[in-house]
């Protein structure tokens, strides 16, 4: 089965779909069942950097799982509450109210005041940004990027947004430290991965020379991949962008993922792991979530991880939860999420399997690349089943 996974990615390298990749997987006992990296981590002229499991990559939204663990650590410390209104700590969040429409004649948003408690880009938002001379998700800080009108009253619908970035700001307010420093002491050092994870890799001497460069396919999403010289995964960000700003090696992130699969007590208590993985959406919100994923092929790929629409999905603090199985690929209840450069992680709780697939390619969450990860996941699933 390992040879089959090798072939999946070797073919992608040969076709030019991927410049390089790293994949790691292990069982619930922490035993590595697959580990491989091949190709190059940069296509910049004169930069000869092989892609290895220690290559430092932009992990983007894969940071959300780590942020959720940090939030739950603060809850355990009594510094945050999952049920308290966070508006007093984050007064700029939602300060514009709810955007209910846009008056094109006046070039102005139609806003409705809202004070619904908030607990732990739509078209009108794009127009609202443009009316202010702004571009979506630009600027150095979380506030610059994410102080937006709400698109609905909290708790009534679902939209992919900046919730984890705000959650990271809460951790910083609660602890008086940056999320980078907090994660270093409470997550990375206990797991021995502190030299391989950071929100600021260019300021870490031991990481700088290992940072991969993003590559891109053409406007049709076709190979061969070339260097994406103009692409900035942080879009000017200088904050700890806890929803999508983490950098790290595949080996380090997978060590973290494996610890979460095993429910390692160095990170969280048993009851906190239960909360981390518990679906948080009621029946109405779950339906809203599934409709959101089905809105367009872009939503299906970017939010739905290219998993078939027939698989019912919900949401947990950890990430998306596939309520149904895909026979031969994953069991019901599998938790899955990814990151912009077509990266993915998964935890198959029933099978006792987790995997991390990392590459540095755009367009984001490109379906042909996600299909490679799905094939890899199927091979890993068979491998772990044969070990039982």
UniProtKB/TrEMBL annotation:
InterPro entries: Beta-lactam-related, Beta-lactam/transpept-like, Diverse_Enzym_Activities. Keywords: Hydrolase. The keyword Ribonucleoprotein does not apply. The keyword Hydrolase applies. Residues 6-360 form the Beta-lactamase-related domain. Belongs to the class-A beta-lactamase family. This is Beta-lactamase-related domain-containing protein. It comes from Apiospora saccharicola.
């Amino acid at each position: 089965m390992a040879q089959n996974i090798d072939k999946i990615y070797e073919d992608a390298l040969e076709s030019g779909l991927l410049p390089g990749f790293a994949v790691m997987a292990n069982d619930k006992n922490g035993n590595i069942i697959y580990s491989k990296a091949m190709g190059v981590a940069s296509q910049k002229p004169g930069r000869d950097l092989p892609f290895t499991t220690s290559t430092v990559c932009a992990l983007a939204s894969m940071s959300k799982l780590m942020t959720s663990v940090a939030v739950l650590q603060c809850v355990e410390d009594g510094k945050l509450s999952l049920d308290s209104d966070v508006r007093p700590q984050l007064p700029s969040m939602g300060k514009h109210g709810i955007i209910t429409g846009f008056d094109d004649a006046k070039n102005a948003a139609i806003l409705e005041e809202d004070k619904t408690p908030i607990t732990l880009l739509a078209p009108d938002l794009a127009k609202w940004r443009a009316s202010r001379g702004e571009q979506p998700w630009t600027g150095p800080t979380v506030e610059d990027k994410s102080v937006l009108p709400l698109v609905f009253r909290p708790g009534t619908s679902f939209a992919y947004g900046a919730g984890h970035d705000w959650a990271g700001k809460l951790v910083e307010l609660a602890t008086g430290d940056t999320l980078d420093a907090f994660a270093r002491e409470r997550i990375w050092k206990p797991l021995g991965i502190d030299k391989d994870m950071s929100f600021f890799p260019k300021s870490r001497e031991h990481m700088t020379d290992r940072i991969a460069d993003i590559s891109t396919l053409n406007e049709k999403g076709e190979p061969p991949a070339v260097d994406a010289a103009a692409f900035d995964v942080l879009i000017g960000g200088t904050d700890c962008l806890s929803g999508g700003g983490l950098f790290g090696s595949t080996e380090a992130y997978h060590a973290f993922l494996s610890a979460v699969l095993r429910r390692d007590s160095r990170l969280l208590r048993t009851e906190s792991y239960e909360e981390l993985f518990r679906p948080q959406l009621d029946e109405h919100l779950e339906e809203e979530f599934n409709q959101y994923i089905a809105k367009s092929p872009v939503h299906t790929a970017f939010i739905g991880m290219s998993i078939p629409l027939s698989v019912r999905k919900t949401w947990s603090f950890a990430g998306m939860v596939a309520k149904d199985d895909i026979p031969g690929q994953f069991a019901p209840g599998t938790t899955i999420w990814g990151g912009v450069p077509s990266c993915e992680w998964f935890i198959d709780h029933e099978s006792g399997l987790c995997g991390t697939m990392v590459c540095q390619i755009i367009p984001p969450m490109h379906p042909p690349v996600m299909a490679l990860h799905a094939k890899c996941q199927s091979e890993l699933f068979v491998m772990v089943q044969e070990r039982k």
